[in-house]
Amino acid sequence: MKKLKVTYTPPFAIKISVLILVVIICAEVHFFGEIGLYIGILIGLAAYCIMCRKGTIVEFGNGSIIKCRYFFYKWDIDLEKIDRFSYSIESHLARGGPRYTFDIKFYYSENDVEDYYKLNTSIGREEILKCMEGGVHKLNILQIYRYAENLCPEKAGGYVESSSIF
Fold it and tell me: Considering the entire predicted model, what is its pTM?
């Protein structure tokens, strides 16, 4: 079984980290008064940054299930239940310039509602240049897509142009 670390943070984990930030701030204010607000903000922001930068461990290579783990939160992507999957390079607006991610989306339908699992990792300018020069195969996250593609070639959608607002 192969393990990879991607920078993906599930939305559920972001909500929990914000809750932890608020709880730490409230606890510090309760115990230390007004100075506790500043201490709580510093400690809470540090905890929030650590949780958001942890990344997700992805295990694959043994059957049709891709196992994902972020701290104690676990979920499986069963390729037999996936309708289709593809990858793209997404641009995100951020302070200091755009930020890019390499995204793999696994689409499925449940109760006539289409949804998707997403795995992504942040990539820099060097990786973007590699992709433009045809070296996309050198990205580690693409190993997950290639594994799924080998198991279910009829569901593989390949590269999908990102739907940008620009």
Answer: 0.80
